[in-house]
Amino acid sequence: MKLILHYVAFLAVLTGAAFAHESRPAYLELKQISDDTYDLLWKVPARGPKMRLGLHVRLPVDCKIVKPARSLFLGGAFVERYTISRAGGLTGTEIYIEGLSTTLTDVLVRIARLDGSTQVVRLTPSAPSFVVDAAPSFIGVARTYLVLGVQHIWSGIDHLLFVVCLILIAGTWRRILVTITGFTIAHSITLALAALNLVRVPVPPVEATIALSIVFLATEIARKRRDTFTWRYPISVSASFGLLHGFGFASALGEIGLPRAVRRKVIFTGYLPRSVPAGAPPTLGDAMIDEPYVNHTPTLAGGVGHDMLKRFYKYHFVDQNAGGRERTRISYTLGSDRLVLETYTKFRHDPVIDRYFPGIEPTGKLVEITTVMIVKFRGDKVCHEHLYWDQGSALKQIGVLDAEGLPLAGAEAARKVLDEAQPSNIFMQEAWATSEGKPI
To answer: What is the pTM of this model?
Structure first.
């Protein structure tokens, strides 16, 4: 038995010092921009500054490339972008990754549809293709990431050697079960941390440290002492190193292509000052760049820099939010470096609202407006925020603007955005009548 222990220890040292397995998956993203058109992003792990894995996306034969491919090596990956089109969209078609069956890596696929729904698929060497679904389920997405994490543990020689060492140290079946469970749970935690962008560690140092963790356990096995902390509390050691091994997986996902839009959505939602309790200044430091700015375009309200924005949000925004406010999200679009949010808002002009009606005393009138917010990102932080709405319509609704004879809509302008069946061309009825019956 002693000879076996020393042999495993030697093998662990030899293999662990040599390498930790390639954990970076390739990443394919298809973002639908119209009924028939998609922006395609393809990221493949790089092997040096000018070499890449031989993986290629094979789309349905009737797909057309409408924008030429742009490619470059960036951050440890080969990145390729182009735009494709197919009559009727991609639903029901098969997409194949050529070359995947001869590798040991995986491919993560994410399809973002116009309606905001997404499909997430994990492709493997034994299953290198998939069919685009019409309505992906939450369970399917969760299963994809769960299976990927579990397989990452059991398909890597570094993890297997680490687990073997833990088994030898644990000894009894009960301690083995507890020890490996601790390792698996800790490893899974870092996947969640990566998804929320709470942890970002470069891959090479982590992989090197993973190899050293195997050397550490091998050394513990080879020593004659059995009263060390590792032998007495293997669950503590396995959980700690489980986090470390998970960092390798989490960092790889973040480096090769976990969608920034997903992370930005979390960051932006957490930053939004609208969610801050009345009287409390919003925390902007972690979510915004050093010198951000906000501009409510119709009234020039907002500010530049953290101090000015904290003052604006605390005294001229949060405390002035009208009671009984109703808000409906109309559309939500995430791009490569910006977010566009379109909302319908209904409120009563009971309090002073500086950002909408500066210098105007409360009128008690009901107001309905649509607002477009455009948020620019720099990296994963908010750079600036622009807001637009129809100020003429708002002023007309509170009765301070005489719009008699002017083509200026009131609440019906906002209602039309919510309901397309509302009347069109109400201000150009005479002109509209002149085109009746003309060829089109």
So the answer is: 0.46
Q: pLDDT per position in the chain (440 positions), as tens? A: 444 444 444 444 443 333 344 456 889 999 998 889 999 999 988 877 778 888 999 999 999 998 888 888 876 788 899 999 999 899 999 999 999 888 878 888 889 888 777 888 888 888 899 999 875 555 655 565 566 556 555 555 666 777 787 788 877 888 888 877 777 777 677 665 655 556 666 666 766 777 777 788 778 887 777 778 878 777 777 777 777 766 666 555 555 544 555 444 444 444 444 333 333 344 455 567 888 899 999 999 999 988 898 888 888 887 776 556 788 888 878 776 788 889 999 999 988 899 999 999 999 999 999 999 998 887 667 888 999 999 999 999 999 999 888 999 999 999 999 888 889 999 999 999 999 999 98
Q: From CA 437, how far away is CA 427, in angstroms rounded?
A: 20
Report helix, strand or coil for 55.
coil
| Closest among 163, 241, 247, 242 to 205, alpha carbons compared | 247
Which residues have a Cβ under 8 Å from the Cβ of 223 and sit 6 or more positions away?
Answer: none
Backbone angles phi, psi at 20, to 5 degrees: -120, 140
Distance (Å, whole) CA 225 – CA 140:
48
Sheet holding 26-32, edge to edge: 64-74, 77-85, 37-45, 26-32, 107-112, 118-123
Work out whether the CA dihedral 175, 176, 178, 182 comes out positive or negative.
Answer: positive
Contact 356, 394 (CB under 8 A): yes
DSSP letters spanning 185-218: HHHHHHHHHHHTT-----HHHHHHHHHHHHHHHH
Locus of tokens 């493997």: 124
**What separation in angstroms does the CA of 165 have from each of 131, 168, 183, 219, 221?**
41, 5, 12, 10, 8
